[in-house]
Amino acid sequence: MPDGNSREILWFRPDPRAIIPLDGFHVSRSLRRKLNKQVFTVSFDKAFSDVMKGCAEHPETWINQEFMDVYGQMHRLGLAHSVEVWSNQELVGGTYGVCLGGAFFAESKFHRKTDASKLALYYLVEHMQRQGLTLLECQFLTPHLESLGAIEVSDHDYLKLLKEALKLEVSFI
After folding, report:
1. CATH architecture of the domain covering 17-167
2. Backbone phi and psi for residue 9, each to the nearest 5 degrees, phi listed first
3. What are the residue boundaries of the structural domains of the chain, listed by start?
4. What predicted TM-score, i.e. pTM, was given to this entire model?
5. What is the pLDDT of residues 2-53, one digit of tens each?
6. CB < 8 Å & 24+ apart, contacts of 21-28
7. Cα(10)–Cα(66) distance, rounded to whole angstroms?
8. Disulfide: which of 34, 69, 77, 111 matches 93 by Cβ 3.0-4.6 Å?
């Protein structure tokens, strides 16, 4: 991600690193009610650039035009993917990231309606399980991600999980 001051693209290798165990995603009662009401619809890879733009709406974002261009190219190559959450044909939330083997590296998420980003992660986890992916990496643990079941793992443990996930010959779509 770009440095906040120089805007130079930097590589990060957090230790510990946050992951969401696919069998440990926490669905709160309020989120369960939204799922049961089915007021939102979900799609995959239908509005990738719009999801990135939504994620870039944060006041202090690392998602600059160069970042969007590179991820757009990765999307066209089939490496970067998005989950879109819709309400009445309006994009109200989503997430995007890169998929390699059985690993998905979530970059960012956004919402314009309450719980839409949580729903994007819920549907991402569900989709990953159906497709046979095993590792959902989300970089840094935040209280919000922790409330959804994210945990921290050491770099050593993360590299073991990553090695196994990269061996898998599965497809995101």
Report:
1. 3-Layer(aba) Sandwich (3.40)
2. -75, 125
3. 17-167
4. 0.93
5. 666 776 767 778 899 999 999 999 999 999 999 999 889 999 999 999 999 9
6. 21/136, 21/149, 21/151, 22/125, 22/128, 22/129, 22/133, 22/134, 22/136, 24/149, 24/151, 25/121, 25/122, 25/125, 25/148, 25/149, 26/147, 26/148, 26/149, 27/122, 28/147
7. 13
8. 111
